[in-house]
């Protein structure tokens, strides 16, 4: 797609503000994990929030913004990005700790830990195309709502796996169920984002959604790192992280039910 009306200029100030905001928030959360919340992490987090607020103000006034605020006037576009934020914060943040739990907590080999999530990847690869076709026929609300709830069950099963036991009775079913849930949301999310805007804005819409997914994983990992450390690492820390991811998926289902239209959305102005 190509937007013939787009400015050739780049929003350097917007790029600087959003980069500084995400960087300061992440650094502040990691610093709090290492040294505890206090005089160092507090100003970093406050500065990160201020930079992101400045980014929002800049985008509202810039002649050629990185992200046109008008895109978010469409309920479907906003809802799809909120679902992305919640789901990928859980996925990118929580799954980081699976190898730590398997190797440090349950004394599995690195090979076993590396292969633990292959069932999830296989299910997503096999079912995503079907889920996209289903969303095209019936709309994205049901797949996104149901898929988020199934993903929540998958994370809850991971929390149960912290108690130990055979891989086949703990991590394997958790990976399968989580893969089933994510397969139901990945393609419908992309479809909803792209159908919610005009064709000439498809590139920006896709870029926004990918940026939201990456930022969600970044911040999710930083927050879950705090939870992991506070709960003592493998075992109880892993359980707390997975229950946090479960809550994010439940919130995602609620957002999908409230903001995603039943049928394919009409492109926003």
Distance between the termini: 16 Å
Kindly name the structural category.
mainly alpha
Q: How large is the share of residues in beta strands?
A: under 5%
Order of helices and strands: HHHHHHHHHH
* Unreliable parts: none
Largest sheet, if any?
Answer: none
| Whole-number mean pLDDT | 90
Rg from alpha-carbon coordinates: 20 Å
Please tell me what the overall shape is: flat
Topology record:
Blueprint (H helix, E strand, L loop, with lengths): L11 H24 L5 H21 L13 H20 L3 H8 L4 H6 L2 H21 L2 H21 L9 H25 L6 H29 L5 H24 L10
Task: Walk me through this protein's architecture.
With 269 residues, the protein is mainly alpha-helical. It has helices at 12-35, 41-61, 75-94, 98-105, 110-115, 118-138, 141-161, 171-195, 202-230, 236-259. Helix 9 (202-230) runs antiparallel to helix 10. The chain starts with 11 loop residues before the first helix and ends in a 10-residue tail after the last helix.
Features:
269 residues; mainly alpha; 74% helix; flat
Summarize it.
Helix 1 (12-35) runs parallel beside helix 9 (202-230), helix 3 runs antiparallel to helix 8 (171-195) and helix 7 (141-161) runs antiparallel to helix 8.
């Amino acid at each position: 797609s190509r937007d013939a009306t787009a400015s050739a200029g780049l929003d350097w100030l917007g790029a600087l503000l959003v980069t500084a905001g995400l960087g300061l928030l992440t650094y502040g959360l990691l610093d709090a994990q290492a040294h505890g919340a206090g005089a160092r992490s507090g100003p970093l987090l406050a500065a990160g929030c201020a930079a992101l607020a400045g980014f929002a103000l800049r985008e509202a006034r810039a002649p050629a913004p990185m992200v046109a605020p008008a895109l978010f006037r469409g309920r479907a576009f906003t809802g799809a990005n909120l679902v992305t934020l919640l789901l990928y914060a859980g996925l990118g943040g929580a799954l980081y700790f699976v190898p730590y739990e398997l190797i440090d907590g349950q004394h599995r080999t690195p090979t076993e830990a590396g292969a633990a999530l292959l069932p999830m990847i296989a299910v997503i690869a096999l079912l995503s195309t079907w889920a996209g076709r289903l969303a095209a026929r019936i709309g994205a609300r049901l797949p996104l709502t149901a898929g988020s709830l199934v993903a929540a069950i998958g994370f809850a099963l991971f929390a149960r796996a912290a108690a130990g036991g055979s891989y086949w009775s703990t991590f394997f079913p958790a990976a399968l169920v989580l893969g089933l849930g994510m397969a139901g949301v990945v393609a419908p999310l992309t479809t909803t984002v792209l159908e919610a805007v005009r064709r000439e804005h498809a590139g920006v819409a896709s870029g926004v959604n990918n940026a939201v997914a990456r930022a969600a994983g970044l911040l999710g990992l930083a927050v879950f790192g705090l939870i992991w450390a506070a709960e003592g690492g493998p075992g109880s820390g892993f359980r707390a992280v997975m229950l946090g991811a479960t809550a994010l998926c439940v919130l995602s289902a609620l957002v999908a039910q409230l903001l995603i239209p039943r049928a394919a959305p009409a492109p926003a102005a």
